[in-house]
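Q: Here's a chain of 116 amino acids. Please give me its 3D structure as C-alpha cells.
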Amino acid sequence: MNQEFWTMLEELVRQSDVVIDRPNGSAHPKFPDTIYPVDYGYLQNTTSMDGEGIDVWVGTAPEHTVDAIVCVVDAWKRDSEMKILIGCTQQEKELIEEFHNRSQYMKGILIPRERT
C-alpha cells in the first residue's frame, strides 16, 4: 500500500490529542451489550465522515504507531468510516475486526500496515 498514506496518518495522529471516551471493557452508550475490547476514542479537532472526530483504537503494544485501519460500512446509519489503529497487538487487531463484524448491520475490513 502507498507509504505516503501511512505517513500522512502518522502525522495526523502525531499532531492530534487522542481522546479515549470508551475505555477497554466499557459498554457502548446506545447498545449496553456491546463491550469495547480495546480503548476506543477519537482524534481531537479532526473530522470524519460522521461529522465527529476521526475514530481510533489504541492498543497496548509498546510502540504507539499507526499499524492498521479498519474500513467500516454501517447499514443502520447508512454510512462508512475509516478507523485508525494505534499500537495494537495482533490479538487486539483480531478483536477489533471481530467487533466491527458482530452485527448484521455493520461490517468491517482490517487493512494492516505493511512494514518495509
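Q: Can you summarize the key feature?
A: The beta strands are 18-22, 39-43, 54-58, 66-74, 79-86, 106-112.
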